[in-house]
């Protein structure tokens, strides 16, 4: 199959001289030229006078500018208030800078801009995308949102009610229930990833302006902030524009400490099964996984290649088996959570109710197969090429460039590490793949979650004897 | 030097003063020509990132199916990846992945598209694979392939409809909106029964009718040279024979009555769907309808969002949009109630806002905001070679002019407040199809049928 091995060997079978004459031979896979070399965007790095870091990538073709502000922190700072960080982020784009929410939102929309604020588990992000011609006016609004949010009681109450309704609606979504259950089990209470980033209904009911304002003052601090600008703008223009809107941003508060996390994820020594009943569900959601590994691990490139072959490409073993061969699912995938604190490895899929147990059997068959035997040379080459050659396509738009930089920043990695990553991917061997599969895949210690019609699937799943079975209620998982 | 980015929209860069001025002219340079077998080729050259995309539109969708055999065009979308004579299963996906490329496809009522995207070095492979399945799919088509992808599509249906809250509305709405003889009267994905009924011969007949070069348009966009693309396309596609010419009978005329239907679903909150027939995509009223959708619910301060979510605090969210297709358009308003609220209350607020907009029209500032946002959204849609290829194909299919989007943006600029007022009166006060989705056993929360005031 694939390219490093397969295509060159095909090239030998179809010499150029033959192809040039007469009709070409349609039965031969075409010979491809060498792939283009990756040329990374050039990033200009500087600081504003108040110390805020700035990275600028100029690209002139589209009259759009992306401005991304990242602040280290995120839901890790929630403490005993799950959802506080993401709620605060949501409140930034309500009333701000002396404008009520209508005036502010009207002004943003009038410029053709999008201005969004969010919190992940590990960082806050405020993201502006705007036609070049409206950049200055949009930055003024962004500065209001970041530095002068109002947090009025009326805004907080309204958004709190909306959030409560959204949390209620999670109960309608089997996929969300499965994810909530899995995270709640693998990451125990006290671990930042235990709670959903948008919290639960009890914590939501306690949200008020005072809590939100106090959190904002501890968390939104310039000393933890960095801007990334990508688009139709020069380095100097970007620095000037940001200095004029953010140069005087300072914080009187001491930043909340981002403390080390003492609670570790739960690594089982044996499998265990959690069932959630959704009577009448048209399919079952299955999640199989375990605590993962740091992205800064030297095994990272081998893990990416291994996971590509296992479940992160269309032709991966899991998708080929469960979708293309058996017809059990519309799609199945696997992945490691590459967050600053190691996330989980998980396989997830929606499968036909009547083959819920058979699907689990096939998932474990594939986990064992990639652990017990080395991948063949063609498959390995395909996976490596798919990862390495796909990278230029992930730097196409302003938003993608800013996103790639922001992600690297989270790990303290320079942009040049992308080239190094490609070289390391190309050096991965079949033995490496097998080694990381043995070390990191949870063949005998998986946490397994099944959300479906238990009257139909429970007996089959129990008969597999994958581990002790616990039933969870929807209302306690999505609480 | 930087690599990336994607536009290559030359003139785009001009930046007129914001609010009122005419927006810059967008230009996506392209070449177009047609092979003797009828295949249309459009090439857009853009060397900003070393990637290429190929994007084939077959002008066939669920609207070309027959009652009792629905879901075919979409089932076909799946079968097109199942191997052809010279690239047997599973080579299509594997060869592309080995070249660092991705692929996918999608189906609507009107068309099916297939696209690949990867490093520019993979162009020849993409075109060879596309040619092989356009010309040599049937020799390898057999019952096991059809059976397997039929199962996959049924799984897709479970995942996207049956197991999604409110998912069954998409299944019911086409039947409520159109008479059974109309090509839009069934959902694109088809029914479980029709999917079960499809035979290999049905599949082969459908392919021979519609999947021919004269019913297809191929766009190649990205880090390529048009002359070289044309040479490769001629080499690979020329010998594929032209298919039968396609005549499509005019859809039947029909009248719509005010209709109210209630579905019970496993949901926490009731949701209201209001739907009107509007006009086909090329109709002169389409830009005004698009603007009406924005003025009603496009921004957090839009009229319905204000009335239902912000000041009224009756709904958690509301959307409004005009979906203009080749034969007809539908305008939809979808609102989800807050806990404790019934759908009659939401409906009354929506009706009041529609009456207001019909009576007064949008303010100049609302109109200008809507135009600015829609233009910016279009710009964002053509930031990628994939997005540009899809727009070139779409506009060629709908208007014969691959870069016809500039005309649309001009028309959008020309829409007046009176135009918006007129289309709201003409289309959104007409009879409509209303669907209430309520939690099981909570029929009392549904909206009830009543005559819309004119």
Question: Could you characterize what this model shows?
Answer:
The complex is a heterodimer of chains A (479) and B (454). Chain A is an alpha+beta fold and 479 residues long. Helix content of chain A is 43%, strand content 17%. Chain A is built from 19 helices and twelve strands. Chain A has helices at 3-13, 16-20, 84-92, 101-110, 135-147, 153-169, 174-186, 201-205, 209-219, 235-246, 300-311, 317-325, 356-372, 377-389, 398-410, 417-426, 430-440, 454-463, 474-477; strands spanning 44-47, 53-58, 64-72, 114-119, 123-131, 225-231, 272-277, 283-291, 329-336, 344-352, 447-452, 469-472. In chain A, β1 (44-47) and β2 (53-58) form a beta hairpin. Chain A starts with a helix and ends with a helix. Residues 1-22 of chain A have low confidence and may be disordered. Chain B is α+β, with helices and mostly antiparallel strands and 454 residues long. Helix content of chain B is 39%, strand content 18%. Chain B contains 15 helices and 13 strands. Chain B has helices spanning 72-79, 91-98, 123-135, 143-162, 169-177, 192-197, 200-210, 226-237, 286-297, 303-310, 343-360, 364-381, 385-399, 405-414, 417-427; strands at 31-34, 40-45, 51-58, 83-84, 87-88, 102-107, 112-119, 216-222, 259-265, 271-277, 315-324, 329-337, 433-439. In chain B, the strands form three sheets. Chain B has a six-stranded mixed β-sheet, with helices on both faces. In chain B, a hairpin with a 4-residue loop joins β6 (102-107) and β7. Chain B is globular, with a radius of gyration of 23 Å. Mean pLDDT of chain B is 91; it is low at 1-22. Chains A and B meet through α1, α4, β5, α6 and α12 of A and α2, β7, α3, α4 and α10 of B.
